[in-house]
Design brief:
Elements lengths: L1 H14 L3 H14 L4 H13 L3 H13 L19 H17 L4 H17 L3 H14 L4 H13 L3 H13 L7 E4 L9 H24 L33 E3 L4
Antiparallel strand pairs: 1-2
């Protein structure tokens, strides 16, 4: 009964787009009943929603191997209500494999890496998240989301001028008006990327102003670093390790 209640609660969290909370709850439920097909299937849904596609496949396949005839009662997908849970999991695995086969273009791979990076950032795995954000930017450098997240990487690294550069580019990108679907700040979800990148830019501007005022108060000679007009700022020119207060990493809203 406890595991059943946890699954129902997880479905409610997923319906509210609180995917990471649902994932944590279901992982705990799985420790109580490792072979529960409903937990495995729902965990697959949660993993897929957070961009962890490989793990989602493992969960779906595990639920399918149970061969449970028990019908699904509580679900996000009304069309699967009443279906045997293992059959539904097998179909979800098939659909996800088909989706992954179609992820071939640089833009699609960048979108997948961006979603994965947000998931990793939410789990405090910043090292892996940073790697995925940088790879997403290298694959799709014109995307407002790639640019925004590249700016956030720079801000976390303490390079405020580079962060300012990328946030500015994100606001001018063609898809800047696309709405945020998933972010590490819930308040950013549903907003146009243009708005949240602007918030980040304003935050960084304030930090830079404060830094410059501090520099003016120093009596030591100030070292000037020349820059090209069109090149992005070199890293390491701003105070180290600031606390990012702007937009968190974000991915676009999935089409309805």
């Amino acid at each position: 009964m406890r595991v059943n209640r946890m699954n129902v609660e997880a479905i409610e969290l997923l319906s509210q787009r609180r995917n990471f909370e649902a994932d944590i709850l279901l992982r705990h439920a799985l420790t109580l009943q490792p072979a529960n097909p409903f937990t495995l299937n729902n965990l697959g849904v949660a993993e897929e929603a957070t961009g962890n596609f490989e793990m989602a496949l493992q969960r779906y396949d595990a639920a399918a191997r149970v061969h449970s005839p028990e019908p699904i009662v509580v679900t996000l997908n009304r069309s699967s209500r009443g279906e045997p849970v293992s059959e539904s999991a097998a179909e979800s695995a098939r659909q996800l494999r088909k989706r992954l086969q179609n992820i071939s273009s640089a833009k699609e791979r960048a979108a997948m890496l961006t979603m994965r990076g947000v998931s990793e950032a939410n789990q405090n795995d910043w090292t892996t998240a940073k790697r995925d954000f940088l790879e997403a930017y290298s694959l799709d450098p014109e995307s407002a989301f790639s640019l925004n997240n590249r700016g956030y990487v720079a801000e976390r690294d303490g390079d405020l001028e580079t962060a300012q550069f990328y946030y500015s580019k994100a606001r001018k990108a063609e898809d800047a008006k696309a709405r945020v679907g998933l972010a590490t700040l819930q308040s950013a979800e549903g907003q146009p990327l243009l708005a949240v990148a602007s918030d980040s830019g304003h935050s960084v501007d304030g930090k830079l102003d404060q830094y410059k005022q501090t520099q003016r108060q120093q009596t030591e000679p100030i070292e000037l670093i020349p820059r090209g007009d069109n090149s992005p700022p070199e890293p390491g020119t701003s105070p180290e390790n600031p606390s990012p207060t702007g937009t968190q990493p974000a991915v676009p809203q999935a089409p309805r």
